[in-house]
Amino acid sequence: MAKMRAAQITHPGGVFEIVEREIPLPGAGQLRIKVQACGICHSDSLVKEGHWPGLQYPRVPGHEVVGTVDAVGAGLTQWKAGQRAGVGWHGGHCGHCNECRNGNFFGCSVALQITGISFDGGYADYIVAPAIAVASVPEDLTAVEAAPLMCAGITTYNALRNTAARPGDVVAILGLGGLGHLGVQYAVKMGFKTVAIARGKDKEPLAKKLGAWSYIDSQTQDPAAELQKLGGAKVILATVTAGDAMSATQGGLGINGTLVVIGAAQSMQISPLVLITGRRSVKGWYSGTAIDSQETLAFSVLSGVRSMNEVFPLEKVAEAYERMMSGKARFRVVLTMD
Fold it and tell me: Could you give the CA distance from residue 55 to residue 125 in angstroms, rounded to a whole number?
């Protein structure tokens, strides 16, 4: 049998082991994808450190996967070998439970799957995934360009386009990291009056380069007060993982404004008075399904939004993972298989 390389974790807190495995065969309704690039996401720590309940080991992480269809399982007619394809965080759903029937596929109560958690992910030469979880990847994006958009991209773009913000509204992006640098770009391209919020004056040139209309240095300025000077934000997209930083912005929301949380902070403080007096709200946003990924990629091509990436070969997966987790990467880390 032909072999492939895979970077696996064998137990919680373990190290990456690059092993040889047999190339898997796709079952009915599944596709096998020859991986060209896979982004490393902070959420991959759920596998490495064992924080996901019931996780079975060994497990290959990775949910920012881009490559080409290599084999098509029984029952599929819309895919063929050679097509470009990508797989994101959302790895499938049943389609018939009440949540799925209501279109809330992310809340599937029967067969919700997460790529790289429920089944092996993209830190490998090949991945087998349910066709329902696979997005078509446009030719205009390289594999390295497209990979981070399968999670960081879809999460920011999909969150913004599902708010009540309209072109011309003040929209603030909290954080200028792996999510935030994409959030600023998407907000600008959607026509929002985009305000970037980050720590330090040194981040301002990057914010302006990405197209931000205004910049707030949270180290020397009160983000809430500064946003109110601008009339209040219709939306604040919180991409950071610090609850105190999120909490500090809520007073900057305008009337009927929404703080949208996509950064996985442990906790945050919310003022009921702030919410009540301005009919403001706080909500979270889940990344999205395959069609959302596909539309994210299409919009990125149309508008010129691109992730800023550092690229490592699969053999350096441990170094690449540590680079991402250290927070020093500018701004996403991508593994390549060739």
Answer: 22
Of 281, 272, 220, 292, give the one whose Cα is nearest residue 254.
281
CATH code, 318: 3.90.180.10
The answer on 19 and 112 residing in a single domain is yes
Phi, psi of 27 (to 5 degrees): -90, -175
Pair 20, 73 in one domain = yes
> Given the structure tokens 């950071």, which residue do they identify?
240
pTM of the model: 0.97
Cα–Cα distance between 272 and 278 in angstroms, integer? 10
Is there a contact between 150 and 65 (Cβ–Cβ < 8 Å)? yes
- pLDDT (0 to 100) of residue 222: 98
CATH number at residue 274: 3.40.50.720
pLDDT of 189: 98
Number of domains in the chain: 2
Rounded to an integer, what distance in angstroms lies between the CA atom of residue 199 and that of residue 186?
Answer: 21
